[in-house]
């Protein structure tokens, strides 16, 4: 085929869909093109159907001496309006399959360079982020140890958990700030402490429900350093608006420096696991440092 569909879709996207936030994700442009295709198909169908509707209203308006008549079905019309949507939806399904599996299917998650845990919560409304400690290994999660002081339920008997870093909201209207490196495959294990939340990174074209009792894998690869919005896309309660956070995408160097700084703020002798209140004591410290 000489007609380049993806070029045409890119043009259509740039020209018309400028309300989209900037895409900084490796798989984002594919999803944007899919959105543009469905958008334009919907616009076209809207004008066609309403055009026909209005034309028929005018053509078959009341006229003196014209009588209504009854007829029973029209095979051509029946086939047309059954088959056209069938092909349309099957086409959309086939076309979206690759973009969908790449961005969503658990079995297509690439080898992660960075893995973090993200937890939505309703008491105060926000997101909590857990990074493995300097040992690079997460402590085991123990369901029975989940508490307000230890929301991830980090197992106090697991030595790997003692250095885990937990970032929480600094409180008030200030958003939580999480850092991640650019050009790396980031794997997020996502869950919720209470109700359904939805982890939404508009610039990364990532949106995934956070479901209590389940850890769902989400991945992305950010291509541009900067400060990006984290939102909750599920109306989760009265403080829903307060779930806004900031995702700061750093170069690997800046990310390492930030992580080092966070580890230093969390003194090793105040390991959280031995005392479940320590996890909370560490977290506010870690957020008092502003960005480097
Ligand atoms: Cu929420």
Q: What is the CATH H-level superfamily of the largest domain? A: Cupredoxins -  blue copper proteins
Report Rg: 26 Å
- Terminal Cα separation, in Å? 51 Å
Major sheet summary line: 5 strands, mixed
The share of residues in extended strands comes to: 15-25%
What's the overall geometry?
elongated
Description of the structure:
With 292 residues, the chain is of the alpha+beta class. The chain folds into two domains: 103 residues, Orthogonal Bundle (Helix Hairpins); 179 residues, Sandwich (Immunoglobulin-like), CATH 2.60.40.420. It is 34% helix and 21% strand. The protein is built from five helices and ten strands. Strands 3-2-1-5-8 form a five-stranded mixed beta sheet. The chain has a five-stranded mixed beta sheet with strand order 4-10-9-6-7. Helix 2 packs antiparallel against helix 3. The radius of gyration is 26 Å and the shape is elongated. The C terminus is likely disordered. The chain binds copper (II) ion. Copper (II) ion binds next to loops.
């Amino acid at each position: 085929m000489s007609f380049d569909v993806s070029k045409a879709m890119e043009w259509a996207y740039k020209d018309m869909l400028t309300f989209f936030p900037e895409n900084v994700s490796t798989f984002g442009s594919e999803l944007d093109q899919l959105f543009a295709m469905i958008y334009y198909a919907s616009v076209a169908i809207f004008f066609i159907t309403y055009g026909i509707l209005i034309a028929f209203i005018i053509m078959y308006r009341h006229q003196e001496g014209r009588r209504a008549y009854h007829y029973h079905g029209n095979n051509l019309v029946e086939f047309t309006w059954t088959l056209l949507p069938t092909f349309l939806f099957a086409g959309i399904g086939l076309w979206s399959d690759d973009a969908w599996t790449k961005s969503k299917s658990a079995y297509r998650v690439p080898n992660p360079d960075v893995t973090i845990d993200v937890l939505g919560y309703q008491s105060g409304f926000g997101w909590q982020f857990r990074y493995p400690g300097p040992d690079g290994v997460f402590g085991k999660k123990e369901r029975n140890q989940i508490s307000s002081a230890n929301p991830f339920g980090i197992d106090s008997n697991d030595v790997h958990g003692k250095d885990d870093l937990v970032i929480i909201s600094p409180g008030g209207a200030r958003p939580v700030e999480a850092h991640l490196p650019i050009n790396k495959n980031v794997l997020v294990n996502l869950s919720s402490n209470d109700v359904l939340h939805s982890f939404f990174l508009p610039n990364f074209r990532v949106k995934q429900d956070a479901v209590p009792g389940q850890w769902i894998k989400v991945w992305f690869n950010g291509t541009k350093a900067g400060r990006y919005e984290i939102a909750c896309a599920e109306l989760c309660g009265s403080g829903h608006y307060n779930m806004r956070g900031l995702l700061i995408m750093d170069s690997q160097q800046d990310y390492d420096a930030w992580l080092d700084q966070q580890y230093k703020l969390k003194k090793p002798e105040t390991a959280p696991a031995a005392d479940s209140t320590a996890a909370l004591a560490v977290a506010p410290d870690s957020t008092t440092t502003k960005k480097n």
